[in-house]
Amino acid sequence: MATFKRVLVANRGEIALRIIRACHEEGLEAVAVYSEPDRLSPHVRAAHIAVPIGPAPAAESYLNGGKLIDTAQATGCQAIHPGYGFLSERAPFAEAVAQAGLSFVGPPAAAIRAMGDKTEARRRMQAAGVPIVPGSTRPVADHVQARAEASRLGYPVLLKAAAGGGGKGMRLVQQDGEIESAFQTAQSEAVKAFGAGELYVEKYLERPRHIEIQVLADTYGRVVALGERECSIQRRNQKLIEEAPSVAVTPALRRRLSEAATAAAGSVGYLGAGTIEFLLAPSGEFYFLEMNTRLQVEHPVTELVYGVDIVREQLRVAQGQPLRVHAGALQPRGHALECRITAEDPFNSFLPATGVIRYLVTPSGPGVRWDGGIEAGNEVTLFYDPLLGKLIVWGDTRATALQRMQRALRELVIVGIPSSQAFHLRVMADPDFQRGDFDITYLEHAGPRLLATGASPEVTAPLAVVAALLAEQQRAAEQSPPPTVRPPDRQSAWTLAARREALDR
Ligand code: ADP
Fold this sequence. Notes:
alpha+beta, Rossmann fold, D-amino Acid Aminotransferase, Chain A, domain 1, 3 domains, 5-stranded parallel β-sheet, 37% helix, globular, binds adenosine-5'-diphosphate
């Protein structure tokens, strides 16, 4: 493992900017890549060098492994950080990176492979003594086998894709009569999403919480657990709000979860940052759900309560350096909350929204962190996930964090496209959420009540003012000369080329 000077960030949006910032703080240079519609994104400007890698479709840009590796070599990088999504959990990409003589900022390909196949992961966890959700540990051949497994487990059951992720290829089956058609839809969805149709059957747990443990592992054999994240506020199995610590986790339960998580990571020879997801039943029993072998979207809540920079630790581990965190000293301090601000209209079934961000004010002040990937003038398209930015707050108690999140959400102004902002404000003000009284079915139950009336005045009133201001600014701009642009301190031919290209359009 070599010491890095320059790292290629094979991603876009908020996570690309997050990683570039970590590179700079570690004293490393960062190379950004961008697809055609992302040419004006903040991550492009933040990097030392920015290289266009193709048109909008991810398959021709952010998923083009060969091109990313070539770009890393052409720009003199020693490593590639994949972020999350895209190529981050593709074992062949991790291998190709290594074969090209570069370091992959992530776990060994074998660990990605072992955890990427959910049935193999379940077998491995069973062998490591980690409790798994009751169900099959091998794919079922057809709906007949699925039915046999379901009646053994008892309905309801979940059909899941062995290669699954992002909630795709998953179907809830309430009774025997539904299993054949559910099998077919889940299988075709899995083939479409992952190119592999293997399914397995899991007992559907009633009203559990989604609790996950962050782990970090280094090449010196240390595996450290950084406590839990509570991720039960979901829509269609996708997380919307996360927090740390969880109101449902006592110090004793945290110890047990941490032991299971470190055993899980250790059993696959894990390195770097990873997350072990569990379902926590109302009885207090917990079950391994899956391992994400990469940086998670929601990593900042852990960073805030543990005082650790997870991305900088990833970069250290990839360079063969020891972790800077010491298990003995790890105690969560205070409380952190994260709201995923997405380009989706909560009052219209969370329909993805597209368009140009006309105006943007991001929250700041005590205890507030905005991890964003957009700015005014950027276009939001349907080519990528709808995440605009993450609003994260810290407070000495959960109550303080809740108040702070409400304050910060009111400061956020997004003009040009609908966002999930108003939804988050309503959740923060909801007595059930405030009491911590929720599970993964929260939105199913609370959604209709929370979203019964249209956008709140606290969100629409500032928008009306901003819209008027924008119109005024536009009138003024039409009469004044264009603003001068101050050149940044460090410039390379690549950055200049990218900027010139951007300005030309
Ligand atoms: P994916 O990898 O597609 O995201 P996961 O297995 O991580 O799928 O599950 C996603 C979400 O689906 C979980 O956070 C949970 O809300 C729900 N879920 C998954 N498995 C079960 C189960 N056996 N019982 C109840 N809910 C489940």
